[in-house]
Amino acid sequence: MLEKFSIPYSKTGYFSDLVCDYLSNKKSLNPFFNLSPSHKNIYDHTAVKAKNFSIEFRKTLVNSLKKQYLGIELSKEVKKNLNSLAEESTFTITTGHQLNIMTGPLYFIYKIITAIKLSTELNEKYSKVKYVPIYWMASEDHDFEEISFFIHKGKNYKWKRKNDSSPVGNIATDDLKEILDLFEKELGNSPNANQLKKLIKLSYRSGKNLSQATRIFVNHLFARFGLVIIDGNDKNLKKNFIPHFQEEITKKTCYEYVNKQIDELKKKYNSKLKPQINPREINLFYMTKDKRFRIVDYKLQDNKNKDLYYNQDLHKEIIKYPEKFSPNALLRPLYQEVILPNVAYIGGQAELAYWFQLKALFDYKKIPFPILCLRNSGILIDKKSIVKSKKIGLKIQDFFLEKEELAKKKVLEMSEINLDLSFLKKQLMNQFNYLEKIVLKTDASFLGAVSAQKKKQLNGIEKLEKRLLKAEKRKFTDELARSHLLCKKFFPESNLQERVENFTSFYLEKGDYFFDLLLNSLDPLNHKFTFIEI
C-alpha cells in the first residue's frame, strides 16, 4: 500500500490558485459564488430554489424528459427518478459534458460519479427532499475536434470526418464504423469485452445521431444508479427561456454583467487573472439542421466570418422557433438553472472558473445561483505498481514532480554522499559579510571587488553541486529509470491520467464493478486528489 491514498489538490501542482482558494474558503472570492460546498449548504439552498421554480416548469421538464427517453428501456431507478421530478420536493444535482465518443477521457466518468455520489449522500442525510443526479448532454456544442477521439491503453482512436460546425448532437454516427471495428479488434473476446461490444452495437452502431448514441451508451453505464440524462436542445424546454433569449438580443445583458464580474475578479482577486471565457456582445447562436451561426446584432455569421445575411425577424423567430436558438458556453448555465430545479453543479476547475464570472448576471436575473462543487479527481493504480512504488521509495507527492525534480530528489535520498552544499554557501556568506564590514571601515571602494569575488565563489559551489549531482545520477540510472516509467504510466503525455485515458482500459478488467469501485473510493466534498487501487 502507498503511504497515503489522497493528497490536497493544492499540493498537486495541477489545480489553479483560483480553485484552491475557493476550496479553502478564501474571503476575497465570496462575492463570486453563492455558498461553499457542503451538505448543509446544499440542503439550505433547496428552500431558495423551491421558491423560484414553478409547477409549470416542472411539468414541462418531466414531459420533455419522457419524450427524450422514448424507445429507450428505463431501469426502475431511472423511472423512479423521472417520476419523482414531478414532485415539488425533488431537486437536481447536475453535471454536464460534451458528447465525447466512448465518453472520452476518464474525467467524464468522474463527473457523473461525483453527481451520483453527492445525490446519494444527500438522500441518506435528508428525508424531506429528494435529490436526482443529472447528466446534461452538451448536444449543441460545435467543437467536433474535441469530441472526435478517445485513447484506450495509449492508442488514439480518431473519428475522421469533415468538421462542418454543425451542432455535434445532430451528427450521424454511420461513419464511425471504421474506428469502432479497429477498437473492437483490440478489445479481444473476454466477457467484459463482449459486454462493451454489445453496448457499442446498441448505441454508436444503431443510434441515428451522436445525441441518441450518447444517451443510450451513458444510460446503460449508469441506469442502475438512477442517473437522468437531459438534452437541452429541446423546443419545449427552450420555450421557458424565451424571455432570456429576447433580452440577450435587445439588452446584451450577459456581456454587460459578465464583464463587470471579470473586472471585480481582477480587482479583488488578481489583476493578472485571465477570464476563462470572454463574453460576446450577444451570447447566442442560431441553429439550422446542419449549421450553427453566431448572432452579431441582427446578422447571422458562420465560423469562417462568411455568409453574412440580415434577419429582421429574430424576435418573431424566437417566439415561433425557440429551438433554433442556442446559448453559448457563458449563457448555457443560466439556461440550465432556469429549466431545472437544480441546487448544485459539479464541474472541473475550468468550469468553476467561468461560473465565477456569472454571479452578477444571475443576481440581475433573480435566478438562484447553484452551489459549485469541484468534481472528483484521481489516479487509478494497480497493485503491482503499488508494490513497485514501495520498493523504489516513491511517495504520493513524488508522482507530481517534474522529471528533473524527481531525479534530484531520488538521488539525494539514495546517495551516501551529502550533495547539499548549502552549508558551504552559508559559511562563505558569513566570511564575505565579515569582509564587507572590514572594507566599510577601511576603503568602501573595495566593496565592488568583494561582491564580485563573492558571486564568483558562490557560482563555483553551485556548479560543483550540479556536477556532483550529475555524477551520482549516472550511478543510479536504473533506479531513476524505474521511477520515471512508473510516473509516466500514471501521467501519460505529462498530463493527468484522467485527462488522457478512456474508462474502457479499466472496464475490461473490472466490468460494471469499476463504477462501484469509483463510488466507494471518491468523496465529493473531500477536496482531495485520490489514488484508487484497482
Summarize the structure.
This protein has helices spanning 17-23, 39-51, 55-68, 76-84, 107-125, 144-147, 177-187, 191-202, 210-222, 235-239, 242-251, 253-268, 314-320, 332-339, 349-355, 359-365, 383-391, 403-414, 422-442, 447-475, 477-490, 504-510, 513-521; strands at 6-8, 90-97, 130-137, 149-152, 155-158, 228-231, 284-287, 292-296, 299-301, 309-310, 325-327, 342-347, 371-374, 378-381, 528-533. The protein is an alpha/beta fold. The protein is globular, with a radius of gyration of 28 Å.
Would you give an account of this structure?
There is one protein chain. This protein has 534 residues and is an alpha/beta fold. It is 49% helix and 13% strand. The protein is built from 23 helices and 15 strands. It has helices at 17-23, 39-51, 55-68, 76-84, 107-125, 144-147, 177-187, 191-202, 210-222, 235-239, 242-251, 253-268, 314-320, 332-339, 349-355, 359-365, 383-391, 403-414, 422-442, 447-475, 477-490, 504-510, 513-521; strands at 6-8, 90-97, 130-137, 149-152, 155-158, 228-231, 284-287, 292-296, 299-301, 309-310, 325-327, 342-347, 371-374, 378-381, 528-533. The strands form four sheets. Strands 6-3-2-12-13 form a five-stranded parallel sheet, sandwiched between helices. Strands 10-9-8-7-11 form a five-stranded antiparallel sheet, covered by helices on one side. It has a three-stranded mixed sheet with strand order 1-15-14. Helix 12 crosses helix 16 and helix 19 runs antiparallel to helix 20 (447-475). 36% of the residues are buried.
